[in-house]
Structure formats: structure tokens, C-alpha cells
Write a structure and sequence with these properties.
Layout: E1 7-11, H1 15-25, E2 29-35, E3 41-46, E4 53-57, E5 71-74, H2 78-87, E6 96-97, E7 102-107, E8 113-118
Parallel strand pairs: 1-4, 5-8
Antiparallel strand pairs: 2-3, 3-4, 6-7, 7-8
């Protein structure tokens, strides 16, 4: 039986640029950065303490860089997190208030669509 989501692949064009964004802007921790073979590299990061991680991939023809949409990230304090992200130069949508959560949307350097939400309900 499946009991956990382990790794989500994010398609990127430049693994170093993407790693810097997820690490330095979003605050993810680097879990791995190692060669798989001469052409492929495994770059894996995760939010601090999270059981699910992401890998930054550039080797799948069926996953062009920037094609991911709707990856949802959680924060306990959307306003504080937005202030920190905006201070680092990240542009986001305005805050949206819905019955299930407060959230913003934004993109990584390749245009992958992400959501940052505070879900207190």
C-alpha cells in the first residue's frame, strides 16, 4: 500500500540556477547533488524537516522545463513568509482568500507554477 509521497520531479533547464532558487530564495535544504552518469545529475532538495522532497530534472523529453503547474507549498504564516520572499526579490500574485486557504502564486526561474498557502482550516 502506498503511504507517502516521496519525491516530486521539477523540470528545469539549468540545475544550478534552479538549485539556487529553491535553496536561497525558498529556503529548501540541499539533500543531494551527485552525478548519475556523465550526462545526468541528481539534485534533491526539501523544505526543512519535510518528508517529501523535490528533484530538479532536465533529462525527460516529456517534461520540458517550466511545464510543472500547481505544486503547493505550505507555510504557517503567509504574511511573514511573503515579506521574506519579497525582500529576496520574488514576485508573487496578490494574496487570495478562499474558504480553504489564503495563498499566492508565483513561478520559479523556468516558469514552473507554484502556490504558497496558509491553511488554518
Amino acid at each position: 500500500m502506498v503511504n507517502r509521497l516521496d519525491v516530486v520531479s521539477i523540470p528545469v533547464s539549468d540545475q544550478d540556477r534552479a538549485k539556487a532558487f529553491y535553496r536561497d530564495v525558498l529556503g529548501f535544504e540541499e539533500l543531494a547533488d551527485q552525478r548519475m552518469n556523465a550526462e545526468m545529475r541528481w539534485v534533491q532538495l526539501a523544505p526543512k524537516g519535510a518528508p517529501t522532497s523535490v528533484t530538479l530534472v532536465n533529462w525527460f523529453d516529456s517534461m520540458p522545463a517550466g511545464s510543472l503547474r500547481g505544486l503547493v507549498l505550505h507555510t504557517a504564516d503567509l504574511d511573514a513568509e511573503l515579506a521574506a520572499l519579497h525582500a529576496k526579490g520574488l514576485e508573487t500574485s496578490p494574496v487570495q482568500n478562499q474558504s480553504w486557504a489564503r495563498f499566492v502564486t508565483f513561478a520559479d526561474p523556468d516558469g514552473n507554477g507554484l502556490v504558497l498557502q496558509q491553511r488554518d482550516r
